[in-house]
Write a structure and sequence with these properties.
- There is one protein chain.
- This protein has 315 residues and is an alpha+beta fold.
- It has 3 domains: 28 residues, no CATH class; 188 residues, no CATH class; 88 residues, no CATH class.
- It contains 6 helices and 14 strands.
- The chain has a 5-stranded mixed β-sheet, with helices on one face. The chain has a 3-stranded antiparallel β-sheet with strand order 10-14-13, covered by helices on one side.
- The chain starts with a strand and ends with a helix.
């Protein structure tokens, strides 16, 4: 990472903006501490670690994703990781679950009668009775065939195929009166990110591996005392939770209804896939064991169900 000690800007009248003239910096590859707080990993208090790839984020790379990890129990920040926005990042999906339900003859006729009653003058008991009577009367001519099919249906458990034979004989099937029933929200949204890191030096490769380790560490549970042969722990600590935000043109996208894209809710990291041979041949920097090519696939799942009031807030 680059630590800037001096950056000089001048105003460009033609462009109407500040233009960088020069900058002085040095490369730093050590730990960082958040000035206003501490994080917690596995129960032990440690400073929040800041990582990024590439190291030009905020200077040359103005669009990035910010992954902020927080300890589940004490809510202290553990990691702040900035990554460039990959091609598969700016997509999301919404889902509502419905299921097909067969109402049967009695409920089906009742539903049809209800539609008729409401369509005429709004629902009232007498109107429903009249509509039900009318619906039953209209079906009277089909009553004989329906009764035969219903009998075949009930007897199909005894004589296998009786229902099918009767349907072919009459050239008709019973109306199942299907309807779509809303089941409510049942799935959490998930978001996938695929990062291809091509470090240009051994030190940058080390930084990339730190990022990979940070995500792996944050997604897995703590197990205090688990390595003790005398008193192994029976409990796992919850993994970290993530806040995921986009920065466009160097500015964080707002976390409210004015968000021009979409917000990602509080999430957990459910999968982290690493591939160190993305060029078909494993590559390493000379005289080292540090990879020159890394592909990292991350899958996050939100921990809260969406509803329309959250959409109004930018989700």
């Amino acid at each position: 990472m680059k630590i800037y000690t001096e950056v000089i800007y001048s105003w460009d009248d033609e462009k109407g903006e500040l233009v960088q003239e020069s900058a002085e910096f040095y490369d730093y590859d050590g730990p960082l501490t958040l000035a206003n707080g501490e994080g917690s990993l596995g129960g032990a208090h440690v400073p929040t670690e800041f990582l990024q790839y590439p190291d030009t984020i905020g200077t040359e790379v103005n669009n990035w994703i910010q992954f902020n990890a927080f300890n589940f129990k004490n809510k202290l920040q553990t990691y702040s990781i900035a990554m460039y926005i990959p091609g598969d990042a700016l997509n999301t999906s919404y889902k509502s679950d419905y299921e097909s339900v067969a109402l049967g003859q009695m409920l089906g006729q009742g539903a049809e009668a209800l539609k008729i009653a409401e369509g005429k003058k709004g629902f009232d008991l007498e109107g429903f009775k009249t509509a039900m009577k009318s619906t039953t009367s209209n079906l009277a001519s089909e009553g004989k065939q329906a009764a035969m099919l219903e009998a075949a249906k009930l007897g199909s458990g005894v004589a296998q195929g009786a229902k099918t034979v009767m349907e072919k004989k009459l050239g008709a099937v019973l109306n199942p009166y299907m309807t779509a029933a809303y089941k409510g929200p049942s799935d959490m949204r998930s978001h996938d990110f695929t990062f291809k890191m091509m470090p240009q030096s051994e030190s940058e490769s080390k930084q990339c591996m730190k990022i990979c380790k940070a995500f792996r560490r944050a997604m897995l549970p703590s197990h205090g005392g688990g390595d003790s042969s005398t008193a192994p722990s029976m409990l796992f600590g919850y993994p970290d939770e993530f806040e995921i935000r986009f920065a466009i043109d160097g500015v964080m996208v707002p976390q409210n209804a004015s968000n021009p894209l979409f917000r990602i809710g509080k999430s957990v990291l459910t999968q982290c896939d690493l591939d160190f041979g993305t060029e078909n041949v494993p590559l390493f920097f000379n005289d080292t064991q540090h990879p020159a090519s890394i592909e990292m696939k991350l899958t996050f799942m939100e921990v809260e169900i969406l509803h329309r009031e959250k959409v109004d807030k930018g989700f």
